[in-house]
Design brief:
387 residues, alpha/beta, Aminopeptidase, Alpha-Beta Plaits, 2 domains, eight-stranded mixed sheet, four-stranded antiparallel sheet, 10 helices, 34% helix
Length: 387
Amino acid sequence: MQSVEAFQDLQGEATEWRRYLHQHPELGYQLQNTAMFVTEKLASFGINHIETGIAETGIVALIQGEGGDGPTIGLRADMDALPILEDSKKPWLSTIPGKMHACGHDGHTAMLLGAAKYLSSTRNFKGSVALIFQPAEEDGRGAQRMVLEGIMERFDISQVFGVHNSPGMEIGTFALCEGPMSAALDEFDIIVKGRGGHAAYPHRTIDPIVIAAQIIVGLQAVVSRNTDPTESLVITVTKLNAGTAYNIIPEHAELAGTVRTLLPSLRDLAECQIEACAQGIARGFGAEIEFKYRRLEPIMFNHTVETNLAVKAARSLVGLAAVDDKIKPGMGSEDFAYMLEARPGAYIYLGNGPTAPVHHPAFDFNDEALPYGIGYWVNLVETALAV
């Protein structure tokens, strides 16, 4: 295992790759140019086992170590951009209006390409490394689809790891925690079915807007009165649609929102209690509801053995103090959780410096972080697959 100085020589080339990808962003599964770019780079490194077209534009490439037989570990990078108009003022800003790499997936792809180049030249490990280049992280389906298409079984992957840049963390620092690291993501829709009428005569109606307002307030009690205060539950109403005129009470009001949890039991409670709360309030006013609840991304859970491997690899690169292994879990979601459901593994944050936040028009991945990401991947492989 090596310090970051061993990977500084790759920064210039990786920066060129990253800025090219930044200038040519693609969304979702429509990553034809990105996938072609990645495939051509992998082939130029002398990697012979490259499979494309997984989950439409996903790629898995295998590098065989020269240290003898051993397991295969997966390293994942997401490749898709966001539908945002860029305002970074950088010379390499997006050439496609309304699309930009506002989450740093261009950097994630460049880091894994840099690690691929290094590992394919040294091969100082046993077993194999599966390089996973994933589409459609932003819509929360790409990782699940790659898993459902059998990449873990097809490539005999025994452990899987991910990295994400983190604005506000210093360059050269890492952070993670064992156990739940990101929340499960669910969504709900509630249609309040009342009785419309003239706004001057509300007593002749069943006003769905008033009922919807009561439901919004009532849902906060699910968090404050149905949940252990030491546990984390977020219920946020993000949509409220009703009415067409100033003097008409409508027939219906529509609510929608998101739920975030760090425990499976809380996920079950939230689904049950949101419906019960909304139904009870509506019936109290003489209305009914239509309720839909969708479980989307699962809890992203870092496994013990793999978390320790990630910590060891990061600290060998940057030192003990630069790796925080006890951060608080976040209530955001990450579709890498599907891969961590399929195989044990760990996810780690990499400092991106004082940049704009992700999903912001001014965001840009910090190229100074590239050698740290490349070095982490290499040290992780040489730690997990030590000769």
